[in-house]
Amino acid sequence: MKTPALIASLCIIFSPVSAQICWNEVSQTQDSYQRILRSESGKYLCSASLENAVYESTDGLSWSATPASFPSPVHLAFGQNLAGDVFIASAHHGVYRSNDEGNTWAYANVGGGFGCGALDFEKDLAGNVFVGIGGYLRGLHLSTNGGSTWTNKIAGKDFTDIEVIDASGKVYACNTNLEIWVSENGGQGWNIIANEPFSGSTAMIKDHDDAILIFTTNGSIYQSTDNGSSWQLYSTIPIGGVATPYYNDAIFLNGGVWWAGIYQNGLWRSSDEGLSWERSDDCLIGDFHYLFSENATVFATTSQGIFRYEEVDVPELCSDTEACNYSEVGPCTYPPSGYNCLGYCNHDYNNNGVCDEHEITGCTYSDACNYNALASQDDGSCTFPEIGYNCEGICFLDINNNGVCDYDEIYGCTYPEALNFNPIASIDDNSCIYSCMGDFNQDGTIDTGDLIVFLTLFASQCY
Q1: CA within 20 to 30 Å of 224's CA: 159, 210, 343, 376, which one?
Q2: Is pTM, for the whole model, over 0.70?
């Protein structure tokens, strides 16, 4: 813990503390608090070494200890794999794992040995997990199966900070020798970064938006915006001393607010994307350990407590992972029912561009009597009029207005007294034949014409 004389000297060396920022202690028990994380169910969890416990909170304001009963005090590493299992370090007995958010713990098969405390824990999007182990098992250990089995990829070095660059999959790690190493294949192979301004002085690495930031022991910050191909000096935190490889952390909030904690060199705040810094650790008791943030809420852990500060002008992020604008500024937005955030259907069995949830079944043929203009999927219910009729049963053409469509007219003799009367005929075609005695020429009249026919045929032999 800082002595009064050291505190006084720091007040002289560093820029004045902002009167507007005063940290509020929210821990109820004095302990040496380490890292904070958020569990799958939304609980806050914080590891602590003095009481050998994990502290829980549902609101970040009140905290209670859940004794972990580790065989040795809790150490620095504290994190989660992609499945949400929580991993915690013990000082002499390796890393432990919990699949019930810290209620029960089991040895995680790595780092078991006196003095072999884990220093940092990190995961990547491929499911790999990394842990830096100290002591005689020191090295950077990799698990490709979520933390069940491990391989020491860089033996003989104490790695204190590990950072995964999500956009590229690169993994960076720095150690107590102030070296920085990089892997481009998920931790299988590693190379040391040499001949850079920060080589031999790296304190921590952070991934922020499209940039990789390296913080050095003298407060300098180097930035790469081309995935580590080149580096430029970005800014300098005026710490006025030399940082150690342990207990350094930085977080980035919306609106250009950055926080950086340098062990025994203060907690610093920037409101202009890290270009200028002001020491802002007023009301903070104990030596700084780590930072955690959620939207505008910032937590700092120290050797004596958990402290909280609420930023005023930081725009709130959408925190719902199911939202289309997750982690972006503003209220959460969601796609319409049945669609994803890209505007495509979640389900479209018939590939007609209408999501299955929004299909309207009905008759889709426009010339049908029961055509449904809103229907997107035909259900076989279409009905059609008889040929020549409309859907109301009215003829399209009936020139003679006899109630029979011209298309269905039947020509023939329509007079019942005629010999060739056609009962189904609808139009008379003057073909009727009548029976009239003596009307031999069948012209409907008995006259001299019939007499001539008779005389002509008279005395003829019938066969």
Answers
A1: 159
A2: no
CB atoms within 10 A of CB 447: 11
Residues with Cβ < 8 Å from 176, sequence gap 6 or more? 157, 158, 160, 245
- The per-residue pLDDT for range 239-284, each reduced to its tens digit, is 988 999 999 999 999 889 999 999 989 999 999 999 999 999 999 9
- Which residues make beta-bridge pairs with 427? 411
CA atoms within 13 A on the CB side of 241: 15
Record: fold of 4-310: Methylamine Dehydrogenase; Chain H (2.130.10)
- Return the structure tokens found at 51: 């009481």
The structure tokens listed for 385 are: 């009029």
Q: Look at the block and give the residue holding tokens 């499911």.
A: 127
The pLDDT tens digits for 3-25 are 333 333 333 333 333 446 899 99
- Evaluated on CA atoms 422, 423, 428, 433, the torsion sign reads positive
Amino acid present at 304: Q
Look up residue 286 and give its DSSP letter: S
Residues forming beta bridges with residue 112, ordered by sequence position: 93
Size of the chain in residues = 463
Q: Where are the domains of the chain?
A: 4-310
How many other CB atoms are found less than 10 A from the CB of residue 32?
Answer: 19
Residue in this structure with the two tokens 């053409």, named with its chain if needed: 397
Distances (CA, A) of 185 to 22, 128, 168, 191, 461: 43, 11, 10, 11, 122
Q: Could you count the other beta carbons within 10 Å of the beta carbon of residue 309? A: 23
Do residues 255 and 263 touch, judged by C-beta distance below 8 A?
Answer: no
Angstrom distance (rounded) from CA 379 to CA 264: 74
What's the half-sphere exposure (Cβ side, CA atoms, 13 Å) at 134? 21
- Which helix (H) or strand (E) segment holds residue 233: the answer is strand 232-236
> Is the alpha carbon torsion for 402, 404, 408, 413 positive or negative?
negative
